[in-house]
Specification:
endopeptidase fold (from Nostoc punctiforme)
Length: about 200
């Protein structure tokens, strides 16, 4: 099995859902997409993700091994022409979020109304962690992942959520239509047990 290309800090990774998780199943049901989770690469073997019950760090090698074990695909996204200083700024902002609570209320709100509301006090969901780290780390000009030119090209199925996207309230699937560009897609084949 070929080894994937190394990850770089500040890359966002959008993953296929963990179908044992009620959160993944709920997100898939309302978005119609298999892409139900995202995390931010923060170091050579480190990531930060909003995962119930709190935003946490985790090793990248463990997460990619888990994705391979479960046969879950993933997409690597990156802001075009990202400098080392920008990578550092996004990563530092993401590290400030570690320990915040996972915002179950946002998931339930999206499940019922197909929209997000403002962030709860000290809470985040996975895709909001990515948009907030970019916006707060890079500022509104460079870090806005849904500027007007991107919003003008979003698929019609997302048009009812333009206000959410303008504010950076996105689902993992929405990130595929953001200013971030696809670096690669890993189609993961399930590794047989005992191998």
């Amino acid at each position: 099995m070929p080894q994937p290309t190394p990850f770089l800090p500040a890359q966002a990774v959008v993953t296929e859902g963990d179908w044992t998780s009620w959160v993944s199943r709920a997100i898939r049901r309302v978005t119609g997409s298999k892409w139900t989770h995202t995390f931010l690469v923060t170091g050579p073997d480190e990531l930060i993700e909003a995962w119930f019950p709190r935003v946490r760090t985790r090793t990248l090698s463990e997460r990619t091994a888990e994705l391979a074990r479960d046969g879950r695909d993933y997409v690597v996204l990156e802001l075009p022409e990202t400098t080392d200083a920008e990578r550092h700024a996004v990563v530092n902002k993401a590290k400030e979020y570690v320990g915040r609570f996972y915002d179950v209320g946002q998931v339930l709100l999206y499940y019922t109304l197909r929209r997000f509301w403002k962030d709860g006090e000290g809470t985040l969901i996975c895709s909001r962690l990515v948009t907030a780290a970019h916006f707060s780390g890079l500022g509104s000009e460079r870090g806005n992942l849904f500027p007007p030119e991107v919003l003008a090209a979003v698929p019609p199925r997302l048009e009812h959520r333009m206000d959410n996207l303008k504010a950076g309230y996105a689902t993992p699937d929405d990130l595929l239509y953001s200013r971030l560009v696809r670096i690669r897609t890993e189609v993961v084949e399930t590794v047989p047990l005992g191998v």
